[in-house]
Fold L-lactate dehydrogenase A.
Amino acid sequence: MHKSSSAASFGPGGLDLSKAFFTPISGGAPSSATKRPTKITVVGVGNVGMAIAQTILTQDLADELALIDAKEDKLRGEMLDLQHAAAFLPRTKIHASIDYAITANSDLCIVTAGARQNPGESRLNLLQRNVALFKHIVPPLAKYSPDCIIMVVSNPVDVLTYVAWRLSGFPANRVIGSGTNLDSSRFRFLIADHLDVNAQDVQRQQIAYEKETLENIHKEVVQSAYEVIRLKGYTSWAIGYSVASLARTLLRDQRRIHPVSVLAKGFYDIDGGEVFLSLPAQLGRNGVLGVANVHLTDEETQQLRNSAKTILEVQSQLGV
Ligand SMILES: NC(=O)c1ccc[n+]([C@@H]2O[C@H](COP(=O)([O-])OP(=O)(O)OC[C@H]3O[C@@H](n4cnc5c(N)ncnc54)[C@H](O)[C@@H]3O)[C@@H](O)[C@H]2O)c1
């Protein structure tokens, strides 16, 4: 496949056009003090992967973007389509290939590749197919970018984050799932809409709401993704912004708290095994820096433990 680069080549003579436009100044060559470029890889250029890629570009989060997929034509088409917007965007070098060598030295690798559920197929079978995909995806990512942070977006996100953690051999602080970051945003939108305020001002604070209003908003959050999928076939824009906000916090060491899938063992009385759950985690350049201690009711603690138990049962059938 034609490996991309954002740079065009000019004819067989190899004419260096840059010299025709600029006269280099002495000492202008890159020095060791020059900042290393920030590089993000996105695996899977479907609806979700492309929404993430385009948000990363418009928000100027990377100097280099590497796109990986199994479909060569789709991959090249998406790469060219993004490159053609270069005149309207901050400068980012875009690569695309089925060869993981282009992902080398990434700071952040975002995995969105996933199999689609066949009619009548069980969720466990779909999960097993996704585990098989991850066996092709995660080891080469870890090989080419041994110091990167891996962010899993593919569903079921908690279990696949565990799978990515096992397959990568990385410490748990460098493997994160997008978790309920998007669901939180949906929750904040619905509360903001109800109160007619800005969603960015909806924070973690105890405000007295009518029980019924809160229950309705909760129900709506749970149904949100299904509703969008029913109407347009998939979700993309909100998950794109959600993951870009995580990328910003991680790569710019913002140390913000996000509800994301992290290794939950030892937090909130979850001790039974290695399971990834969405918890309020502080994120920075080293990945997960800590987990916030939010007060939970006994019922909420029990719900978390039940989720952990269910996920562990599923994981025991995966052979990873
Ligand atoms: N975590 C969340 O909040 C959230 C939100 C939305 C979607 N998702 C999940 O994201 C995933 C992707 O959704 P989508 O709508 O983009 O699906 P999609 O079918 O449009 O895209 C999936 C892409 O993965 C690629 N792919 C398949 N096998 C591959 C392999 N071995 N290597 C590289 N690429 C491969 C496909 O070619 C395709 O381009 C799904 O699992 C979906 O459930 C998660």
In short: Residues 104 and 144 are 5 Å apart (CA to CA).
